Amino acid sequence: MGDADLEEIRRARLQQLQQQGGGGGGGGGGQEGEDGQEQQRHREAEARASILGQILEPAALDRLGRIRLVKASRAEDVENRLIGLARSGQLRQKVTEDQLKDMLGALSEQQEKKETVTVQRRKGGWDDDDLEDLLNDDI
Length: 139
What we know:
Layout: H1 3-22, H2 30-55, H3 58-70, H4 72-87, H5 97-115, H6 128-138
Helix pairs in contact: 1-2, 2-4, 3-4, 3-5
GO molecular function: DNA binding
Pfam families: dsDNA_bind
Protein name: DNA-binding TFAR19-related protein
């Protein structure tokens, strides 16, 4: 990832921060605010697409698009991870489709671990019958 890529990311982020902090004056109509937010989301989406286009090979970008059609949240997780790696300078070359598959597998394993619920029951503990026996003995 070159200096031009980083500069583009910085410009997109600066523009985002300026719009968040600079829209404070007056009691303008709600429509203008909604249009501004929509434009901002559109610019953010374009910036993300531009970054992903620079760090992914065409086959990997195509696969990510297909993943987005099936499960948008998973595609967003992968995109966030890829953009984070690019910003930190850990990507030395464009990501291939096989590398993307590996990343998807790793994310899938992490999500499975998060979603696992383990129920452990105590053995030899109290049950409802014991409680009834205790109450009946006191009467």
